[in-house]
Amino acid sequence: MAERREGSLDAPERHPINWQDVDYYNEDSLFTELERVFDICHGCRRCFNLCHSFPTLFDLIDDSESMELDGVDKKDFWKVVDHCYLCDMCFMTKCPYVPPHEWNVDFPHLMLRAKAVKFKQQGAGFRDSILTSTDKVARLAGIPIVMQTVNAANQMGFTRKILENTLGVHRNASVPKYHSNTLQKRFANRSSAVSQPAATEQTTGKAALFATCYGNYNEPELGEDLIAIFEHNGIEVKLADYSQCCGMPKLELGDLESIQHGKDKNVRMLAQLVDDGYDIVAPVPSCVLMFKQELPLMFPDDMELKKVSEAIFDPFEYLMLRHKAGKLNTEFKQSLGTVAYHAACHLRVQNIGYKTKEMMELVPDTKVELIERCSGHDGTYAVKKEFHEISMKICKPIVNRVSKSNPDHYSSDCPMAGHQIENGLDSSKQPEHPLRLMKIAYGI
Predict the structure, then answer these.
(1) Secondary-structure percent of the chain, ordered helix, strand, coil, rounded to 5
(2) Alpha-carbon separation of residue 190 from 229, 239, 240, 241 (angstroms)
(3) What angle do CA 327, 331, 336 make, to 5 degrees?
(4) Which residue among 264, 283, 294, 387 has its CA within the 20 to 30 Å range from the CA of 245?
(5) Predicted confidence band of residue 1 (pLDDT cuts 50, 70, 90)
């Protein structure tokens, strides 16, 4: 008889997402699996303090007549699904029953399946279609006169009330600004300042920057800072031709077919860059994770995608690999003092360690306080009328830590998480991305 072991004693494994299988969208099959996993979660409850999905599930059970899962109306299962925004923290940090454990619990990917079933049956409402069409909306909002109107409207109380009542975007939610002078425009036809990059065992010394929707249209400064820091470290930087959104917003919506269209365009372009000797970097953790994990699980037989997934890096992962090989510039000009650093969920899921923290700690007289909590933002969850206040409650422990430590800087690799923290602080101090902090430390 095979030995039975309690808990997850082996490294977690992710199974391919069989989204093209007909049974994947079978509602009866889905609810059978939801019941199985929800009952395991009910008996464990380790994830009670993560997102709002688990408190919702446990309250439904505890408020039922039987105080067991069989007392919960199956229609209420959708309430649990709606609160999952695929941060992956339950799978990565809490659940003892993830594969290869025989119970085979992958809560986030089960929620993804449920979202896909719901999307297949109902499609998306106007608001969710708008919020997840990030590149299309950004292109429109990037037209100069449209940009000025949108940015101004997002700062006015009465227009935010109208937006809340008509579109369902909460009036107090932090919404990004748009730029007509995008990163692509700023660096069009630009040649790298580094002409003779030095390769290491794990890096080529040539990096192609995938700007991402957010990095191109909302905060092009992210790309500017990354390029400045990389070139300061002797790394040749080429701006990849922006093509499509990475697909993370559509993943969270359950619109899996739309992801395939964007994947095909992006992978074709990025794979060619890899063939040309470039590594790939992107400034937003969710986008890197999409290429490292979610897309390969959706398309396990796509060899071009596999090539890209093995060549894409978080910026600080890349820099610290260079440091390991003795190729990092450590001549810093300015201390950062104390930094309250929020480690974004989609960065933690990459299992690369705290490379951003490690690099900031190379700066003399700099103290980094690590905060390992979810900000509750997710890109779209925190802006929705029905979820915003819950998202701020999820973020509250981070806000309290930042307030208590009164740091010289507070920062997150996820720019949206940084603004979520800012939204909860009673302060005029703004978040500073780690790339900006390193630029300050270098005196660039």
Answers:
(1) 50, 5, 40
(2) 16, 8, 11, 12
(3) 115
(4) 387
(5) very low
Asked whether the beta carbons of 380 and 127 are under 8 A apart, the reply is no
- Residue 62 predicted with pLDDT over 60: yes
Structure tokens at 395: 């973020």
pLDDT single digits (tens) 133-154: 887 777 776 677 667 767 777 7
- Residue 338, beta-bridge partner list: 367
For 281, list phi and psi in degrees, rounded to 5: -130, 155
Cβ within 8 Å of residue 302, ≥6 positions away: 263, 267, 295, 296
In DSSP terms, 342 is beta-bridged to 371, 412
pLDDT digits over 164-201, tens only? Answer: 888 888 899 888 888 888 999 998 878 888 888 999 99
Neighbours of 368 (CB within 10 A): 23
How far apart CA 279 and CA 226 sit, in angstroms, is 14
4 pLDDT higher than 70 = no
Per DSSP, the three-state class of 55 is: helix
Residue whose entry in the numeric block shows the structure tokens 């439904």: 60
Distance CA 428, CA 439 (A): 22
Q: Which of 122, 96, 90 is nearest to 25 (CA)?
A: 122
The closest of 384, 359, 377, 351 to 439, measured between CA atoms, is 359
